[in-house]
Amino acid sequence: MDEATGVIHLLLRAKELSGKYQNVVLGKINDQVIRMAMMTEPYFWHVHPDSDETFLGVEGVVVLELDHR
What are the mean pLDDT values of the chain's consecutive 10-residue runs (69 residues total)? Predict the structure, then answer.
């Protein structure tokens, strides 16, 4: 993060990640957590019944499988 502006440089942060799966907290807004994850293999299906999720692809391909769709 640029300390002077508070801007998080996503590509620079992404380059710090390694391995098959890594998840880091970028920040918090109200009671929500903003995370960045790097995955190189399928991740187990799961659900968050009391929250929303937004996915932003920085590089590569993301395939999302939804229940009943």
Answer: 79 87 89 86 81 79 78
CA distance 69 to 64: 10
Read off the tokens for 34. Answer: 């903003």
DSSP secondary structure letter of residue 15: H
What's the pTM value of the predicted model, to 2 decimals? 0.67
Handedness of CA 23, 36, 47, 64 (dihedral sign): negative
Pair 38, 26: CB distance under 8 Å: no
Residue among 50, 36, 41, 48 nearest 20 (CA): 41
Amino acid identity of residue 57, one-letter, is: G
Distance from C-alpha of 53 to C-alpha of 30, rounded to nearest angstrom: 15
